[in-house]
Design brief:
This protein has about 475 residues and is mainly α. It is built from 19 helices and four strands. Helix 5 packs across helix 8.
Length: about 475
């Protein structure tokens, strides 16, 4: 991951003094910071949203440098304005306590699930397709939306590659498996793991979002089933297409990776329940022992997966390091660029983002949960949903204990908005564009960016309107 070296250089230029002075350093003064500090964050997210679409070739070869440039526009001005020690502590704290654990989990889920192969083929009838979507939606909260998408998208494509009307199958796959299904655990979707790193209990989302997930996912699945039945019947009178992948017995390969995935879950549960109260100082930043142990166990499980998996299984899955390397580089930039934004949000009504605070606050001073749901969701549709979640998490106070108890409905609205509405566009969540690219490569006639948004506008937006009224009004 050579593209990570610029981030290391940027960070280390302000980090080393932080080790000696960490005890004297305070948080960045958010009340004194203007909206200019948010421009690098907005610029990086805009680059991520438009780069693959408007300047694909440049983006493909230089996205790491582009992200590093935006990060530099944060690190250098912070060091000049507030001093190297304070800037170094702020950036290093974010990278060591949040980014590393975040990317280690994604790396593990991506790598271990890549060794699991669903071989063979079944015929893509409406009931079979609905069953695959249901299984994928459940798996998404266990092995992540990325892991579930990468395991099941190819079996889904093989099952439907002889149908004249098949693009809708992939679209609903993105809706349910790549997004909505991942809303029940921190493993499911990156924003929820960010919340876990901020102190949200592992099973909080399971206990507090199951109704919203069951309703919204069930409604979308019913719409799919009705549509697929109609299209399947229309295909009955159409000329038959030779099946390029005839039906064969379905087998699950790479079973040795299943206990390794269970081990990842166990490591996370261990870090949530085991609190020895020991902090290990690294460059002046105290890292909790349980978190270091968790990350070490997860990396060891990744190593085991690479040792026990068959290379042929990964090749059949189209596995490569490119997607996870891209995620690692871009999120390094995101976590650095969001540092001043978080400081401003913590200032609340006294900060430069006070108008945004007012939008999600009712006249009586209470949080407007419906506004949290839609604003988090709207931004998650076009920006990456993990940093969007973090922005609104901080906007709601940033105190995990308060948000899990007195403000549980607010945290539920933020969580549901970030996860559900990542499905609104191809760029709302990492697996969306990966599934789209795989389907196009297999010859599926997928709609373009705005064509996909027409589908989400017709299917998802009405579903979210109903869910928002029922659960967050």
């Amino acid at each position: 991951m050579r593209g990570l070296f610029p981030f290391a250089a940027l960070a280390m230029s302000v980090l080393l003094p932080a080790q000696a002075l960490a005890t004297e350093i305070h948080e960045l003064p958010g009340t004194a910071m203007s909206l200019w500090w948010a421009l690098p964050f907005a610029g990086l997210l805009l680059s991520i949203a438009t780069g693959p679409l408007l300047f694909h070739h440049v983006w493909e070869h230089h996205y790491g440098k582009i992200a590093a440039a935006w990060a530099a526009l944060v690190v250098v001005p912070l060091a000049i304005a507030f001093g190297v020690p304070m800037a170094g502590e702020a950036v290093l704290h974010t990278l060591l306590t949040e980014y590393l654990s975040f990317i280690i989990l994604l790396f593990a889920l991506y790598t271990i699930s890549g060794g699991i192969l669903v071989a063979g083929n079944i015929h893509g009838t409406p009931l079979v397709n609905a069953g695959l979507l249901l299984v994928g939606g459940i798996l998404a909260s266990v092995i992540g939306t990325t892991g579930a998408s990468m395991i099941l998208i190819r079996p889904m494509l093989r099952a439907n590659d002889n149908r004249p009307f098949n693009a809708h199958v992939v679209i609903f796959f993105i809706f349910l498996v790549s997004n909505i299904g991942g809303s029940l655990t921190p493993l499911g979707d990156p924003p929820l793991f960010v919340g876990f790193l901020r102190g949200v209990d592992f099973f909080w989302t399971t206990a507090n979002l199951w109704r919203e997930t069951l309703f919204t996912g069930g409604l979308v699945l019913i719409v799919f089933l009705v549509l697929d039945i109609v299209l399947h019947r229309r295909e009955g009178g159409a000329p038959k297409i030779k099946d390029p992948t005839p039906d064969t017995k379905v087998r699950l390969r790479g079973l040795a990776n299943l206990p390794l995935l269970a081990g990842v879950i166990g490591a996370i549960l261990l870090s949530a329940s085991w609190k020895p109260g020991i902090s290990v100082p690294i460059l002046g930043i105290g890292l909790e022992l349980q978190n270091l142990v968790r990350d070490a166990i997860i990396l060891a499980l990744v190593w085991l997966s690479l040792r026990v998996s068959y290379k042929s299984h990964r090749e059949a899955n189209g596995f490569s390091w490119g997607p996870i390397a891209e995620v690692a580089k871009l999120f390094a930039g995101i976590f650095i660029c969001i540092v001043p934004v978080i400081a401003i949000l913590r200032a609340g009504h006294d900060g430069a983002l006070a108008p945004l605070v007012s939008l999600v606050t009712s006249a009586d001073g209470q949080p407007n949960n419906l506004a949290y749901f839609w604003l988090t969701g709207a931004l998650s549709s076009f920006l990456d949903n993990a940093p969007t979640y973090l922005v609104f998490f901080e906007l709601a106070g940033g105190d995990a204990h308060h948000l899990m108890t007195e403000a549980a409905s607010t945290l539920a609205a933020i969580s549901a908005g970030a996860v559900f509405m990542g499905a609104n566009t191809y760029i709302g969540n990492a697996p969306n564009f990966m599934v789209f690219a795989i389907a196009r490569h297999r010859g599926f006639k997928m709609p373009g960016f705005f064509g996909y948004m027409a589908w989400s506008g017709v299917v998802l937006i009405p579903s979210f309107l109903i869910a928002g009224f029922l659960f967050f009004h």
